[in-house]
């Protein structure tokens, strides 16, 4: 029997912490489970950058990944592992909703669990928030933790 | 400060300043500028013996033609693939977070799309007539192959440092590529290129931009001394490149593409409104390209102007874009070469043609109703215009025939274009500078300060001296760069054949997004 996998989106916020707590609760209830924690650094290949920014982009990318691991993913992985769960931490660049969905598909996840991020600003009003877009496009069930 | 700045500038730049007491400050700077750079301009634009055809134009045409034939019309064969690459169809999603093909192209375009497309085209059409447009398009299409060659090499031979930063450009492929092929002289060419690149950055990438931005602003608010515009620009550029205030650059980098799109949209609207004249305008372009009747310099004048402006606008063969494109993250250098060939197409074939068509159909160029030929000015050097304007003001007048408010929008666009081009060229110049003198905070600061000083000079000098100097420096870069491209093109061909064979065999696949 294959393991049940939960993909949890983390962003370092309290809502992300609640999402992880919910995932642990579900995993405890379900038994043999695998939790994948994912931090997505918002990045678009269609943004405009100066030549100087391009020159240093690779360096910055490494720094961004390292910071995300240090501040968010690694502590969360350590805490979850200490609680007795099988866990994996992933940091990726791109669109949050696309990356989480792609990861869920790639790992055959049962569901994606994310914290609710309140809509703010004009951009979210026009294009919708991350959670909204995830719900609209995800290929597996999505649980949003308030 | 008001009196100190001009005095300091004159002391450095003007050996004839003392003899010109009654002249304005702008005139003094202009005269000093023309007298100190005239010899170089004459050398670069010297005609072929017995003709009036500048050898440098022939050099670019032959170079672009050789690359076009050598790579089997790569601009046509790889056009569709270039669009796929820019869309990210072949980008590995696991590599996301690096510099994409789109970003490298957009960065290079922010350095090339600018005043060359607005003022340069007006100069070309004003002197060479609408026929110059044909040669501009032709040069743009040929130039795609030059850009393909140099940008492939730029990525292949870039320096990747331990800290993850990258630096690339002709200086690097000249030294490393020549060594790989066992050819002598790579270092000499690299040093020469770097020197010309620094001067090109100060000329076309800086003074020309400041000059035309001032022309545009003073055309709207009325005449005032150019150095004031220059000083304001210098301070803002200083804040970005020395002060590290990236937020200003970030805003322009986002606004410039928007302005570019808006410029094309407005041009299209004007063309649609005057749809009945489009056929006539293309007729003028076609006829003028081969006969040059009624324009200064005739057929050769149209051809020379077309090629000169195209080269100045899209910089194909110049080597500057190779610096901008080399930061892209790809395992295949050829992919960036393919993407870069879109640059002359967007810059010259699309945007320059739009400007030329609007100028032609707007009626700002005076035509003799009896003969149907263009009327030359008194000096016989260019076509007489309805309001006597030239350069960016001619484009502004042409667009104003469609939308009276357009000069205001164009003024903002020109300022932003000029600003983004200056930022881009400050980077190109800095890369050439550090290649020569080495990296280090003080060394880099010296170049950045010189760059800011030249903004003031450019805004204060008159169009003639500045535009000639800009052309001369940029073409001097092309002399060295194309020489190196000839030597290294077999390497590009090997890469190209390997890449397209793997693409055809299915080894290189599209990624689902």
TrEMBL record, chain A:
It holds the Pfam family Usp. Residues 7-146 form the UspA domain. It comes from the Bacteria. Coiled coil: none annotated. Belongs to the universal stress protein A family. This is Universal stress protein.
Automatic annotation (TrEMBL), chain B:
This is Alanine/glycine:cation symporter family protein. It comes from Yoonia rhodophyticola. It holds the Pfam family Na_Ala_symp. It is a multi-pass membrane protein. GO terms for molecular function: amino acid:sodium symporter activity. Its main location: membrane. It comes from the Bacteria. NCBIfam families: agcS (TIGR00835). One of its GO terms (cellular component) is plasma membrane. It is found in: Cell inner membrane; Cell membrane. Belongs to the alanine or glycine:cation symporter (AGCS) (TC 2.A.25) family. Residues 1-19 form the signal peptide. InterPro entries: Na/Ala_symport (IPR001463). The chain crosses the membrane at residues 53-73, 183-204, 224-243, 255-273, 285-304, 345-367, 405-425, 445-467, 473-492.
């Amino acid at each position: 029997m294959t393991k049940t996998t939960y993909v949890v989106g983390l962003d370092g916020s309290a809502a992300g912490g609640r999402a992880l707590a919910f995932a642990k609760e579900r995993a405890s209830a379900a038994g043999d489970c695998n939790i994948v924690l994912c931090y997505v650094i918002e990045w678009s290949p269609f943004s405009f950058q100066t030549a100087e920014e391009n020159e240093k982009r690779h360096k910055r990318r490494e720094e961004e990944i390292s910071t995300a691991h240090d501040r968010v993913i690694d502590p969360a992985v350590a805490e979850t592992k200490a609680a007795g769960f099988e866990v994996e931490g992933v940091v990726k660049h791109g669109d949050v909703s696309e990356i989480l969905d792609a990861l869920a598909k790639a790992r055959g996840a049962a569901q994606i669990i994310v914290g609710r991020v309140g809509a703010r600003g004009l951009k979210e009003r026009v294009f919708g928030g991350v959670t909204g877009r995830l719900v609209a496009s995800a290929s597996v069930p999505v649980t949003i933790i308030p | 400060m008001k009196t100190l700045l001009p005095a300091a500038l004159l002391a450095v730049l003007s050996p004839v300043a003392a003899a010109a007491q009654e002249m304005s400050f702008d005139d003094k700077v202009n005269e000093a500028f023309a007298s100190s750079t005239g010899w170089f301009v004459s050398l670069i634009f010297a005609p072929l013996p017995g003709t009036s055809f500048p050898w440098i134009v022939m050099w670019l045409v032959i170079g672009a033609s050789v690359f076009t034939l050598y790579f089997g019309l790569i601009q046509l064969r790889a056009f569709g693939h270039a669009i796929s690459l820019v869309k990210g169809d072949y980008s590995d999603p696991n590599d996301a977070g690096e510099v994409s093909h789109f970003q490298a192209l957009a960065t290079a375009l922010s350095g090339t799309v600018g005043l060359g497309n607005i003022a340069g085209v007006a100069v070309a059409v004003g002197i060479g007539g609408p026929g110059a447009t044909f040669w501009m398009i032709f040069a743009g299409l040929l130039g795609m192959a030059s850009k393909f060659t140099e940008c492939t090499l730029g990525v292949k031979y870039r320096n990747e440092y331990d800290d993850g930063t990258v630096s690339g450009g002709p200086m690097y492929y000249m030294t490393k590529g020549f060594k790989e092929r066992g050819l002598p002289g790579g270092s000499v060419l690299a040093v020469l290129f770097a020197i010309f690149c620094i001067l090109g950055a100060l000329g076309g990438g800086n003074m020309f931009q400041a000059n035309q931005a001032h022309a545009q602003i003073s055309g709207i608010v009325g005449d005032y001394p150019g150095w004031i515009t220059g000083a304001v620009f210098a301070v803002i550029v200083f804040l970005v490149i020395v002060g590290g205030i990236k937020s200003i650059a970030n805003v322009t980098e986002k606004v410039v593409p928007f302005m570019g799109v808006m410029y094309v949209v407005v041009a299209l609207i004007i063309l649609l409104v005057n749809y009945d004249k489009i056929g006539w305008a293309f007729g003028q372009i076609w006829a003028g390209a081969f006969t040059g009747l009624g324009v200064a310099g005739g057929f050769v004048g149209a051809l020379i102007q077309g090629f000169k402006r195209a080269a100045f606008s899209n910089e194909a063969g110049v080597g500057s874009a190779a610096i901008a494109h080399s930061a892209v993250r790809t395992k295949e250098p050829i992919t960036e070469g393919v993407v870069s060939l879109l640059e002359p197409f967007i810059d010259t074939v699309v945007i320059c043609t739009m400007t030329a068509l609007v100028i032609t159909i707007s009626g700002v160029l005076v035509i003799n109703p009896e003969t149907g030929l263009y009327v030359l000015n008194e000096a016989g050097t260019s076509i007489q215009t309805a309001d006597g304007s030239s350069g960016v003001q001619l484009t502004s007048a042409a667009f104003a025939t469609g939308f009276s408010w357009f000069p205001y929008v164009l003024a903002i666009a020109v300022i932003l274009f000029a600003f983004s081009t200056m930022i881009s060229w400050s980077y190109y110049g800095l890369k050439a500078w550090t290649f020569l003198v080495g990296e280090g905070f003080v060394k880099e600061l010296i170049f950045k300060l010189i760059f800011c000083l030249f903004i003031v000079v450019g805004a204060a000098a008159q169009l003639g001296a500045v535009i000639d100097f800009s052309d001369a420096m940029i073409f001097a870069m092309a002399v060295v760069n194309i020489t190196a491209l000839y030597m290294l093109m077999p390497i590009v061909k090997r890469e190209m054949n390997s890449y397209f064979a793997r693409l055809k065999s299915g080894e290189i696949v599209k990624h689902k997004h």
